[in-house]
Amino acid sequence: MSSTLSTLRKLPHKLRQLSRSLYLLAADPRQLGSNSRRLWRAWRTGGSQMLKHQLLSLGHPDAPTVPVAPTDAWQDYQQRLSSEVLPVLRAEIAALKQPVSISILVPTYNTDPAMLTAMVDSVRAQIYPHWELCIADDASPKPHVRQMLQELAAQEPRIKLHLGESNHGVSHASNRALALATSPFVVLLDHDDLLQPQAIYRVAQSVMADDPDMLYSDEVLVSPDGKEVLQYFHRPAFSPEYLRSHPYIVHMAGFRTALLRSLGGFDETLGISQDYDLILRVSEAASRIVHLPEILYQWRTHTGSAGHDKMAQVMSTSTAVLQRHLDRSGVAARSAPGVSFNFFETQHQIADGQRVAIIIPTKNYGSLVRQCVDSIRATVQHAAYDLIVIDHASTEQASLDYFAQLEQEGTATVLRYQGPFNFSAINNWAVRQLTRPYSHYLFCNNDIEALESGWLEHMLSQCQDPSVGMVGAQLLYPDRTSIQHAGVCVGAFGIAEHYGKFLKLPPDRVDIAFMGRLVSTHEVSAVTAACLLMRKETFDAIDGYDEKLAVGFGDVDLCLRTLQLGWRVLYCPQATLVHHESITRGKAEGYDPHPEDSALFASRWRDFLDQGDPYFHPAFEVRHTCWLVRTPLHCEASINRRLFSRSGLGQRMQRLSYSASVSVPLPQAAAAAGTQPSA
Questions:
Q1: Each residue of 242-255: pLDDT tens digit?
Q2: Which stretches make up the Glycosyltransferase 2-like domain (predicted)?
Q3: Number of H helices and number of E strands within the chain?
Q4: What are the C-alpha distances in Å from 118 to residues 142, 288, 370, 390, 408?
Q5: What is d(CA 354, CA 360) in angstroms, rounded to the nearest whole number?
């Protein structure tokens, strides 16, 4: 009887939610088809529970189409946090000798009374007591706001107020809050959101240990009443290219106070996208950026927010903001809207002097090579390239006849290779035979098929950046609707696996997946050599492939050694090709086809594997390829902060390390290019 009454009491709330979701479904006819497909995929994936979460997410343009952990997982996490983690952190706080103060900046305007109270309560409930709450009201016309703020400040001496007399916008109010701050580090909090109880302590931990210029955390998107979880936003380590493709850093963000003031704070000419502009400007100047891989922020969504009402303005303003960032950074490129809301493309022009050697090893399978070569010739129009086919002792007459035809036509150079199969040795040998000067090498399997014009131009335009060592493509299975490769997660399934593998795409092939990972150019730890574009300079500096890895993981090792010298590795979704995977050498199921290679790779990169891929998140299931949040949710007293630092040696030297002290060099090329790394 009690359960029935409880259900009846919840019925009006559920009906309101359903009504709101159906309204949002029909509100934009242009999105009706894609939203309907999202709902169908949610039903197929997770039944009624997932359908409910997907319906709720329609009100938020950033909500992705992959499954989220159910709401009860979040409730369980909160209980474990309170009982298991917070007592440990409170003991750490009590033992601090010289705690640092943190300022929390909040602009307010006509804030709902309940939300304002809840926001302030979440700050006062922080287990770390060394904070100040700097609130600047932008002349709210509703009288309750000023009155409530004055009452709250009277109750709490750590609250500082600026009460504006005239309205100037959120950027102005945020700068007024910044002017109130007396702490060396500030964090941003929206007037209608909530902090997790450990949030400010996690910031203070990083400030004291890492000395960051900027930091950011993960967050959870919840319904206005906070009872429904719409999405968990688990972010990677700092990724400059990802930030240019999508403002993936939202909440919670924090900054060194002196740096923020030196940059002039928020741009008061911006009434929207001001946070994105600020983060881009800080990222240009910051030497140390820290990611806190923990949910520290509850983002309460509601349909009245500016992001929902002004999507077109958000896109135009953010595109302009991004263009100014590119100009300041000296990047000769144009910012343009991407394939979905809040996604962007950086369109580079290919500089003079770029030429690519496309290296295609094969043994027989002339029909596959013909398909590969013909598709490249049909789709590459504006990039200079030469085709180099490596004939590894072919015996099929039809294949030999085709290779002879290529030579007679002058379509490709055919080189003959003898010896046992060793993928690394074959590619290294091929590079040594080249006599023409090349800026880049494209390592290409014989079972690759290009689909659309411009794919190589996209990859080359990214890889001409001196900070980029290699670029990988998006690869599809032969059905052309399933992802085969969207970058490589090092450590997945024990050693390495492709992101997005087996994920089915909708008919228009546009699916942003988790936080846009399928449609955003971004840094990854590795890409597959089935279609990998690499700078000659980088290849020479790391001495090419390691021939001790004859078959397995030679490409992943190649990528990690590239990272070790400081170059970036990018995944480029604008280059989409078909990979007719395993037609050539067969597909091994249920066993490791190259255990010696696997053992050598695991031994060489043990520290990296133990620490975890910085572009993967500890909250994800490591035996899943599509960013599945594991349950029960990750909840530990100790977190592995990911520190990105830029050396004073120049733009090309950047490193990423962990709070656990193991150093993993990442993005951008070596300060001393040509130095042989020790693996």
A1: 999 999 999 899 99
A2: 103-226
A3: 21, 26
A4: 18, 33, 65, 66, 76
A5: 19
- d(Cα 559, Cα 563) in Å, to the nearest integer? 6
Is the pLDDT assigned to residue 41 strictly greater than 70? no
As a residue count, the chain comes to: 679
The most distant pair of C-alpha atoms in the chain lies apart, rounded to whole Å, by 90
If we measure between CA atoms, which residue out of 670, 632, 665, 635 comes closest to residue 652? 670
Alpha carbon 562 to its chain centroid, in Å, reads: 19
- Distance in angstroms (rounded) separating the CA atoms of residues 321 and 342: 12
CB 236 within 8 A of CB 291: yes
The 3 state secondary structure assigned to 517-531 is: CCCCCEECCECCCCE
**What is the chain's Cα-based Rg?**
26
Bigger pLDDT: 16 vs 435: 435
Give me the DSSP letters along 135-200: EEE---SSHHHHHHHHHHHHH-TTEEEEE-SS---HHHHHHHHHHH--SSEEEE--TT-EE-TTHH
Name, of 193-207, 319-333, 541-555, the range with top average pLDDT.
193-207
Q: Is the pLDDT of residue 373 over 50?
A: yes
How far, in whole angstroms, is CA 336 from its chain's centroid? Answer: 19
Q: Are strands 131-137 and 412-417 parallel, antiparallel or unpaired?
A: unpaired
- Tell me the two tokens of residue 408: 């007679």
Q: Which two tokens stand for residue 613?
A: 């891929």
> Which 3-state string (H, E, C) describes 219-261?
EEEECCCCCCEEEEECCCCCCHHHHHHCCCCCCCEEEEHHHHH
Q: What sign does the dihedral 294-300-303-309 (CA atoms) show?
A: negative
| Pairing, β 522-523 against β 412-417 | unpaired
The H-or-E segment that residue 470 falls in is strand 468-476
Tell which residue, 592, 603, 580, 493, has the closest CA to residue 551. 592
To the question of pTM greater than 0.85 for the whole model, the response is no
Q: What does each C-alpha distance from 494 to 525, 602, 621, 679 come to in angstroms?
A: 15, 9, 12, 19
Nearest to 293 by CA among 644, 668, 663, 674: 644
Indicate the average pLDDT of the chain: 84
In 42-152, beta strands by DSSP E: 102-108, 131-137
**pLDDT tens string 319-335:** 999 999 999 998 889 99
Residue 494 has what DSSP assignment? G
Cβ-based neighbours of 494, under 8 Å, separated by 6 or more: 602
Report the pLDDT value the prediction gives residue 65, as an integer from 0 to 100. Answer: 44
Rounded to whole angstroms, the Cα distance separating 284 from 147 reads 40
Using CA atoms of 303, 306, 307, 313 in order, give the dihedral in degrees to the nearest 10: 140
Rounded to whole angstroms, how far apart are CA atoms 448 and 426? 18
pLDDT at 238 (0 to 100):
94
Across the strands, what pairs with 298?
194, 220
Whether residue 627 contacts residue 620, with contact meaning beta carbons closer than 8 Å, is answered with yes
The Cα 627–Cα 675 span in angstroms is: 36
The residue assigned the tokens 């580079």 is 348
Which residue stretches of 575-645 are H helix? 595-604, 606-611
Structure tokens at 598: 């696997």
Q: What is the DSSP string of 426-437?
A: HHHHHHHH--S-
* Helix/strand/coil for 274: helix
Q: What does the H/E/C string look like for 539-586?
A: HHHCCCCCCCCCCCCHHHHHHHHHHHCCCEEEEEEEEEEEECCCCCCC
Distance CA 372, CA 444 (A): 9
